[in-house]
Amino acid sequence: MTTELLFLRDAYLQECDAVVQEVRENAVILDQTIFYYTSGGQPHDLGLINGQLVTEVRKVDGDVLHFLVEGASMPAVGATVHCVLDWERRHRLMRTHTAMHVLCGVIWNEWKVPVTGGNMEPLVARMDFELPEVPEGFAEKVEKLVNEAIAHNHPIEVSFLPRDTAVVDEDLIRTKVSLIPDSVPEIRVVDIVGLDKQADGGTHVASTQEVGVVRVVKMENKGKGFRRIRVSIVE
Ligand SMILES: [Zn+2]
């Protein structure tokens, strides 16, 4: 069952109608959705389907399952339902996700090391990278560079490239675009113009100023040059 993922083309959609394709216990599969499912370090959305709480959104064997609160009256297959996002949460996740790209871009530009992993919750995130030596004042410098990049107000553009084109793109190579399976014909590219370009399925704000102010909360040494940086985003 293929669900059209509306957030891939428009992350600012807050409501939509959808047709129920399948009902599995307390979860529904829809023909299209605005709900982001947990993936790529970004947690799932919350919100309402026909006024009932969506408690989790998860991809299981290729199907996007929207779990409704226990005791919800489940809609019938074929019914049209109305979906509404918890926009405050989603927008915070979009700001946080975008801040992580800015962080990636800054760390790459300044120290030429790639980010190896990360995770986020609304307005807090961590990112991992490898750096054998951490220079004096590193956290302060990262914070300064990130906030300068945000203030520069880089636009963020989403495009879809044929896989053949994406795998030879210099900027995408460093983010390991070649690891995306051959079966994927089209690759979604998120470009913070002039700063960071990645193959990415997440939701982002439209330009960097919308992120807000980023604070580096903590630097951790996880051993053998493995560093973890924790950030928070100030309202
Ligand atoms: Zn992203």
UniProtKB/TrEMBL annotation:
GO terms for cellular component: cytoplasm. Signal peptide: none annotated. Keywords: Metal-binding, Zinc. GO terms for molecular function: alanine-tRNA ligase activity; aminoacyl-tRNA deacylase activity; ATP binding; metal ion binding; nucleic acid binding. One of its GO terms (biological process) is alanyl-tRNA aminoacylation. It is found in: Cytoplasm. SMART domains: tRNA_SAD (SM00863). Its main location: cytoplasm. PROSITE patterns: AA_TRNA_LIGASE_II_ALA. Its cofactor is Zn(2+). Pfam families: tRNA-synt_2c, tRNA_SAD. PANTHER family: ALANYL-TRNA EDITING PROTEIN (PTHR43462), ALANYL-TRNA EDITING PROTEIN AARSD1 (PTHR43462:SF1). This is Unannotated protein. It comes from freshwater metagenome.
